[in-house]
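Quick check before the chapter quiz. The format below is the same one you will see on the exam, so make sure you can read both the input and the output lines.
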Amino acid sequence: MKDNNNLLGFIDKKNNALEKERQLKNKEQIILNRNNLKEMKKKNIRLLTRGTYLEEILVPGENWTDEEVKDLLKKLAVSQ
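Here is the expected output.
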């Protein structure tokens, strides 16, 4: 009987440890997701800001395709 109680106690401790591990993994994933979201927001702000600058500098009213803008930026990068 005493061995049964010891075994049940061990099983309970193991189950509690597994549950705690699961909870910690979930918390870790939540933190990682939050950090990813923050980084995505920073990137979006950066892209919107730079896109605004680009539109202000390019000749207004001229219809630039994405490829033309890309080529222009490549030429600018190479020229420096």
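If your answer matched, good. The chain has two helices and no strands.
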